[in-house]
Amino acid sequence: MSSNQRFGFLVGLCAYFIWGSLPLYIRAMRHVLPQELLAHRVIWSVPTALLLIALAGNWRDIRAAFHWRTAKWLILSGLVIGANWGVYIWAVNADRTIEASLGYFINPLVSVLFGMVFFTETLRPAQWASVAIAAIGVAIVTVAYGHVPWIALFLCMSFASYGVIRKKMAVDSRAGFLMEVVVLVPLAMGWLAWFAQQPDGRLMGQGGWDIPLLMAAGPITAFPLILFALAAKRLKLSTIGMMQYIGPSIQFLIAVFIFREPFGLTLAIAFGFIWLALAVFTVDSMVGEAKARRLARAARPV
């Protein structure tokens, strides 16, 4: 592994570790309303994004992101990812972190289906099999919970939709992220202004440590996105594909062993199907990529 690849692997691990550990931060701020935490996550992401753009010196990309042809899609992706953040924060505080982690486990499979629908990508038989196995797992989860796991389905569908929209946009990740949170800032500030006027309202939590912790919501949101972008440029797609399970795995372990959320036999069986589906999907992806490399080498002129 080259030094460039090692750097990519390290920053990729950091990104997924931050994403996986996010429930600990959200639970530490449990005394703050989910809407309040979401509003601060949006607001403090703006100066963070501006700082990262300034360090990279790519101000030109901001103009491209704010051009209407690109901005209209980034407005939509901003609303989608904002809804994703809000539901995730609520789920962690409602003791449903296991269900939230399920959403990110099945997200790669939903992304494959979206690729077929929106980008006319074809699915190999093993990929169809992994989707079917995952569907069985979701059905078992429905039985275990006694209702459709809407949190998991919303999180995976919204994040996959976000990926589809961003795939269409040839824009720098930092500039695109800035545009997305700028769209959400009026909603966030409007809600905070209304909340501050309520009898128990406030602007910065309960003061004290809440102030820096709420301000930290911006870097916690922006940094892993940037680290992921750095990793994606340096690593193979198969490596990134394997690493994407680190986040939900950490979330799952936190939910079971730290938050002590109930995890009985039925849920264990359901997650077994999900993990089997991911194993089939991952192995097939690795085999497909290896085959593509062999064909590329065979077609290369001697």
Outline the fold blueprint:
Elements: H1 3-28, H2 34-43, H3 45-56, H4 60-65, H5 68-93, H6 97-119, H7 125-145, H8 150-168, H9 173-196, H10 210-215, H11 217-234, H12 237-243, H13 246-258, H14 265-299
Task: Describe it.
This protein is 81% helix and 0% strand. The protein is mostly helical and 302 residues long. The protein starts with a helix and ends with a helix. Belongs to the EamA transporter family.
Average pLDDT, rounded to a whole number, is 87
Dominant shape: globular
Contiguous low-pLDDT stretches (5 residues minimum) are none
Query: What is the first-to-last residue Cα distance?
Result: 26 Å
The proportion of residues forming helix, as a percent range, comes to over 70%
Give the strand tally: 0
Estimate what percentage of residues fall within beta strands: under 5%
Total count of domains? 1
Oligomer: single chain
Order of helices and strands: HHHHHHHHHHHHHH
SSE-based structural type: mainly alpha
Give a quick account of the main beta sheet: strands, pairing sense, barrel closure: none
Cα Rg:
20 Å
Please count the helical segments. Answer: 14
Give a quick set of tags describing it:
302 residues; mainly alpha; 14 helices; 81% helix; globular
Précis, in short:
The chain crosses the membrane at residues 7-26, 38-59, 71-90, 102-119, 126-144, 150-165, 177-196, 211-230, 242-259, 265-287. The chain is mostly helical.
